[in-house]
Amino acid sequence: MASQQGTIANDPIMLYEAGNDSEAVDADMTELASVKSPAVIDVLPGTVTGPLSVIDTEFNEGRVDDGVEHVQTWNNPPANKWRLLAILFGFVLMGMNDATPGALLLYIESYYQQTYTVISLCFLAPAAGYMISAFFNSNLHIMFGRWGTIVGGLLLMCVAYSLICWAPPLPLLVFSYGLVGLGIGTLDAAWNAFAADLQNVNEIMGLMHGLYGVGATISPLISTAMASSGLRWSYYYFIMFGVGISIVCLNAYAFWGETAAKYLKDHPAGINEDGESQGRLSEALKNRYTILLAFFLFFYMGAEVALGSWIVTFMVTERHGEPAKMGAVASGYWAGLTVGRMVLGFVTGRIGENTMATVYLILSIAFELVFWLAPSIVASAVGVSLVGVFFGPVFPTAMVALTRLLPKRLHVTGIGFAASFGGGGSAIFPFITGAMAQAKGAWVLQPLVVALIGAMVVIWMTIPTFEETGLRDRIVGALTRRKQRLSESDSD
């Protein structure tokens, strides 16, 4: 593959992809950050390959700046090690948070003496908070920087836990869950956007969202064990509060210095056709990929949380299992989610994100049918665990898609909006499940989940190829090189 040299000025340079296609791109550093193709860029005085990211002020301290942007890694600049560690523990907390209401659903229902439909407001309230955050994530970063946004989001969650642990009146309980959703919405945008600019994004996001599964795995086991032993269900939230405060401290230390000024420097505003600066949210919403992937995540999170939240109820009412033991089935689902994200994240990027996401969705439907139709407790437990294995990697893959299809300046806004809009599904569909289960029974969970995953397959088919190192690209590259060798040998 030939390459052409250029300079880091305002002259165009040529980016050559697989084959003979090329495109001229202005060499402005902000625009370079948005290039999402497997390009090779030969520049003076050095050579950079792959997607580019804005350089951190701490990056390789003491090194002479060569005027070229460099991809950050998990350990370079050194502060990234602490930042990633803080994010990983944060995702454990998020997993614990999302799995707890479903595991305690029967106990909450009994405590408040309310129907499934009323108690399902505990799923609807976080979605409202999550979706509200979508409209403020960009402004929060501009006003308070990454540090203020992250610490503020975590403190909101801790305030909510301090209220829930006392089993407040139902309206205050619902409001508290809304605060939790608002906090998680801001954190999802900030943490995912940070990780999106690192090398090996599939592996890193797989680890992050895998640890979400770790939290979601241990939470049903601990919470149901406490509740079944005679302790009030709300006492589990004392644990959540303690864990939350610890993670506030860790993130406050790790992201110190990520101010509003630094965020604006690294993420300058876009310019519209009239040469005027335009709002990031309006720009992101005009991008069709933001909307497509927002609906994709809406169905994903609806299926993921509806399934995780209603497993215990389904196994007790439809499979006649013991409530104390069925918490383990829910943990099996979240454990499968964890394993899938951590292990399959290494497979996804090597074979190709577009292809593997389709495979994961099809296998998820297959094992969901096993969970639905198998009559025994063991077969259902195995089926739902395998649903978790193959369904888990889909979310981080969608995050990767957003970062490849959107320019860097829209990462926080685009990811924040899509994830927040998706968070609406995590509450709306469990709420719908509760309303339907009240009238028809908990079996309605299964056809709903199959329909949601089927809708995701349809949407994914409309997403263009965005993978950078997929199997298809390697095959095309190998065939191209072979053709070139044959042409050279014929000419000799």
Structure explained in plain terms:
The chain contains 19 helices and 7 strands. It has 492 residues and is mainly alpha-helical. Residues 1-69 and 271-278 have low confidence and may be disordered.
Strand arrangement within the widest β-sheet reads 1-4-5
Order of helices and strands: EEEHEEHHHHHHHHHEEHHHHHHHHH
Q: What's the average pLDDT?
A: 78
Radius of gyration: 24 Å
SS element count, helices:
19
Helix content: 55-70%
Which geometry do the CA atoms define?
globular
Question: What class would the helix/strand composition place it in?
Answer: mainly alpha
| Major pleated sheet | 3 strands, mixed
Low-confidence stretches: 1-69, 271-278
Mind sketching the topology for me?
Elements: E1 5-6, E2 13-16, E3 22-25, H1 29-32, E4 40-43, E5 47-49, H2 79-103, H3 105-112, H4 116-119, H5 121-133, H6 137-164, H7 170-196, H8 201-228, H9 236-254, H10 260-266, E6 270-271, E7 277-278, H11 280-285, H12 288-317, H13 323-351, H14 353-373, H15 377-391, H16 394-405, H17 411-440, H18 445-460, H19 471-491
Parallel strand pairs: 1-4
Antiparallel strand pairs: 2-3, 4-5, 6-7
Helix pairs in contact: 2-7, 2-8, 2-9, 2-12, 5-7, 5-17, 6-7, 6-9, 6-10, 7-17, 8-13, 8-16, 12-13, 12-16, 12-17, 12-18, 13-14, 13-15, 14-15, 14-16, 14-18
Short description:
With 492 residues, the protein is mainly alpha-helical.
Give a quick set of tags describing it.
492 residues; mainly alpha; three-stranded mixed beta sheet; two-stranded antiparallel ribbon; 19 helices; 4% strand
